[in-house]
Design a protein that fits this description.
binds (R)-mevalonate; alpha+beta; about 325 residues
């Protein structure tokens, strides 16, 4: 019998990039969900079927003895999840894995969501009873095995869901009692390589360590204050903090003309704050669009060439279906 788990994507609110360097961030889960359905097979083969492979009418097969040796692009995160669980819990089995999820996810969906869904499904299938902290640890190790870098904020968001205060590597994972978030999300239409942008900021930090480290300290202050304003529902103060953080991201060179255009348009339409989300270089920006201003902010983002992404925020974390 197949076990199915589903996990959400994420929107990084504050702390982008600095969270790679032992600073905190705030992240909310978005209701763009990824599913992994896994069942045991008698033979010694692991079969993986993903939306991308289905589009190409392909299925991917590997030996159950060697998952995780050489990752293939379309299946890397699922394979890494299986390899990590087998390694840690001394397991081996033939498997059939089917994943579902949007192929286009605006940079909000994440490889981490599919990894977390796969680890949760395996935990249930082999009766490992992993709690949230263990799911995070195992899935984060799998993600690092594929990507090499990453703070793990997206893994924590996929596991815990809702809105989380997070410090690098899961040093702190604090779920926040937030009810609703009044953000408008705009997609720039540009695709991003997170690894390249993280590398660019790392090089800038190597060239200017004192200044960039001090700016990472400012990011921490912004995030810590942002946590209070989120809990207070003070969107004016939170908007100020978004604008201040955008200043840091501009200085680190990860803004683009298109993102800057969407951010300026949202602010001109009355948004109390607007910034890019994540690595930069494209993907999404978001703006405070509370109350009556929401419609005007959405229209401004569209008029400036962006696509408004209509998705629920503060979504539930990983679930067994
Ligand atoms: C990328 O979505 C966010 C970064 O902070 C990298 C990370 O935290 O892993 C740039």
């Amino acid at each position: 019998m197949a076990v199915t788990a589903s996990a959400p994507g994420k929107l990084l609110l504050l702390g982008d990039h600095a969270v790679v360097y032992d600073r905190p961030c705030l992240v909310t889960a978005v209701d763009i969900r990824y599913q992994a359905s896994i069942s045991k097979q008698d033979d010694s083969t692991i079969e993986i079927d993903t939306p991308e492979l289905r589009q190409q009418a392909k299925t991917y097969r590997i030996s159950a003895q060697h998952p995780g040796k050489h990752y293939t692009k379309e299946t890397a995160f699922v394979e890494a999840a299986i390899a990590q669980v087998f390694r840690e819990y001394d397991l081996q089995s033939g498997l059939s894995v089917v994943t579902q999820g949007p192929v286009v996810s605006y940079g909000l969906g994440s490889s981490s969501a599919i990894t977390v869904a796969a680890v949760a499904a395996l935990s249930s299938l082999f009766d490992l009873r992993l709690d949230k902290a263990e799911l995070f640890r195992v899935a984060y190790a799998a993600v690092l095995d594929v990507q090499g870098t990453g703070s793990g904020f997206d893994v924590a968001s996929a596991v815990y869901g809702r809105t989380v205060y997070f410090v690098t590597g899961g040093a702190t994972i604090e779920p926040l009692p937030v009810d609703s978030l009044p953000f408008v999300i705009g997609y720039s239409g540009e695709k991003v390589s997170t690894t390249n942008l993280v590398g660019e900021v790392r090089k800038l930090r190597e060239r200017q360590p004192a200044i960039v480290n001090r700016m990472f300290g400012v990011s921490r202050e912004i995030v810590d204050s942002g946590k209070e304003q989120l809990l207070n529902g003070d969107w004016s103060a939170f908007g100020d903090l978004m604008n201040l953080h955008q200043g840091l991201l501009d200085a680190w060179g990860v803004n683009t003309l298109q993102l800057a255009t969407l951010i300026a348009a949202a602010r001109d339409a009355g948004a109390l704050g607007a910034k890019l989300s994540g690595a930069g270089g494209g993907d999404c920006m978001f703006a405070v669009g509370d109350g009556e201003k929401r419609v005007a902010v959405e229209q401004a983002v569209r008029d400036a060439g962006g696509e408004v992404v209509d998705v629920a925020l503060n979504a539930e974390g990983v679930q067994l279906l």
